[in-house]
Amino acid sequence: MLATILLVTFSLLQISYGATDPFLSDRATFPYFFRTVQSKKGQYFAISQLLKYFGWTWVGIITTDDINGDESYQLLSNYLSSEGICIEFSLKLYNQNIPYEELQHKSTSVVIFCGTINLKTAVTLWELPDIISDKTFIFTSDLIYYSYLIYYALTLFNGSLIIIQNRADYIRTNARLRQFIASVHPSMHPEDKLLEAIWLLYHSCMAENMSLTSIHKRIYPPYLPDCTGEERLTDLQAFNDDFHTRNMIIAVQAMILESSKMHYRQNLITEQESAKNRKVIHFKHQGQFLKSFNENGELVSPYHINNLFITNDYLSDKKIGLYIPWAPPNQKLNITHNEIIWKTESNKVPRAQCSDNCLPGFRKALKPGAQSCCYDCVLCSEGEISNRTDSENCFRCPDTEWPNANKNVCIVKGAEFLSYTNDVISVFFSSISVLLFVITLLILGIFIIYRDTPIVRANNRSLSFLLLVSIKLSFLSVFLFLGRPVDITCMLRIITFGITFSIAVSSLLAKTIMVCVAFKATKPGSSWRKWLGVKLSNSVVLFCSSIQIIICMTWLAISPPFQELDIHTSPGTIIIQCNEGSAIGFYSVIGYMGLLAAVSFVLAFLARSLPDSFNEAKYITFSMLLFCSVWITMIPAYLSTKGKNTVCVEIFAILTSSAGLQGCIFLPKCYTILFRPEINSKSFLRVNKFC
């Protein structure tokens, strides 16, 4: 770093093959500095993406107790935090006492090593007990410069991953380079002190420099033989190792290329322009991928992800993935999952999670005082789903949809209404309605056939016909309540049964009034005789029914009933129902029918003690009592039920009250007509009682 700062002062171009400090990317401070590797930021970001790919959110970090280790740890932890990855423990080598007992209780199976790599690091890792060697390590590309240190802790590297940038295979593939290296010997280059040191260190050859030989004897075994002269660099184990980098070759090629360009342009540009051009060197090295220097002076190239494993006491590796920085986000990381050899049983992916994954349908709930990676899985609330693993929040389904049983997908809510096909009670109501309609039709036929008999004529046959017709329409109105409600049926159902019932009750009211008038008209000289006839009864029916019709038309004009989709009452179901539109209109219709029924009941009750010849008032009294009881009971049942149950209550009230009118008023007369014909005569009506 100090050398770099010093050379910047003299505006000297520099190309480094190993410096990874992020600070060197500052172009304002280091405008002439380039490097054939990316800064640590690149590989640490790649590591965070690798962890994210395997779902490792709970990792350990081992670093070194120096400036490089501290900076690496801080940078790596920032990238991990941005991806939601937590650090279970961090361990500093060298000066920190290793907490062996504490490490035994660490649950993560993945450990990242960052910091300074040297012989001291390797020895310290070798001293770690077996509790750390069974974990999967992830190493950065710095290890490639010290590959010989791997054998100091061989079992530690087995089954681990390493990220490598600009790896070279020229030892096997470049025969020309191998031949050149084989020809290199200190005797051919006596001035090269580096070669002399290499021969002393690796071949244990005695150096010409006696002071250097003396120092070596103090450090290493004292025996230093005279070399034969046949020793070569290609004999070294490190030379034949698989871990080599082309960073230095790229740096030299970049320097040669740029120097050539500047040589030809030096007479064409000024020194200031030359400095400007040196800041933006565009060098491209054609390999597996196109590589170039970016705006920060870094050579951008893909990261190879390799798997380390032991075969025959020898550490081998194979490429299992690639990280391409410039690719689209979903294509940056490519992993051949099945090619990886892990340390685990059955070659399963190591587990590195504080908590188990929350399956779709659950959400994460953080544990108090714990890191964000430690959580409980909580089932989504009613009406909410989560459709991905480890979802932090559940989201609510649209109004027309509902979660399935697993709460991982929204499905369309089922529609609820009184269906002809899916509800047995609909078939029951339809059958009862048709049956009662047929019975009413038979009664009407009987009354038509026997319309001239005394019992039919004595009870105002025109009102009886009108009452039977209204009862038939009431039975048929049930079908407006069955099936899927639409706006038109919603308007017709309430209006139809409201008007038909008003006509029926008005007919009974007219009958009751006629009974009272007929009794009073029997007195000699009574003025009530002028009210006898059909005019009074027709006027009563027309007047009372007209008021109900006016109420219904006003209701339809102001706020008519309409189809309503109730999505809140029943979870998972859309209740298709009719909204009354105006509650005042609905209860006005029901209230007016109740008023007519009450008046009819009171009048019929007062007329119950009239002579037997005019004793229809007793049947009217009982029918109105039944009618009022049904509808008074219907109101609280109507208010307390929802959906198709409400419709069932309405249908039951219509059928029961209509059947009550039919049974109380007409069945006794039909019995008399069909089975007691001797009673159905004028003479008997004048003298005796009948039903």
From TrEMBL:
Q: Which residues form the signal peptide?
A: 1-18
G-protein coupled receptors family 3 profile domain residues: 425-689
Alphabetized InterPro entries for the sequence: ANF_lig-bd_rcpt (IPR001828), GPCR_3 (IPR000337), GPCR_3_9-Cys_dom (IPR011500), GPCR_3_9-Cys_sf (IPR038550), GPCR_3_C (IPR017978), GPCR_3_Ca_sens_rcpt-rel (IPR000068), GPCR_3_CS (IPR017979), GPCR_3_vmron_rcpt_2 (IPR004073)
Q: Which GO terms describe its cellular component?
A: plasma membrane
Protein name stated in the entry:
G-protein coupled receptors family 3 profile domain-containing protein
Molecular-function annotations in GO = G protein-coupled receptor activity
State its location(s): Cell membrane
Q: Where are the transmembrane segments?
A: 427-450, 462-482, 494-519, 540-558, 589-607, 619-639, 651-674
In terms of superkingdom, the source organism counts as Eukaryota
Q: One Pfam family, please name it.
A: ANF_receptor
The membrane-topology field of this record reads: Multi-pass membrane protein
- Protein keywords: Cell membrane, G-protein coupled receptor, Glycoprotein, Membrane, Receptor, Signal, Transducer, Transmembrane, Transmembrane helix
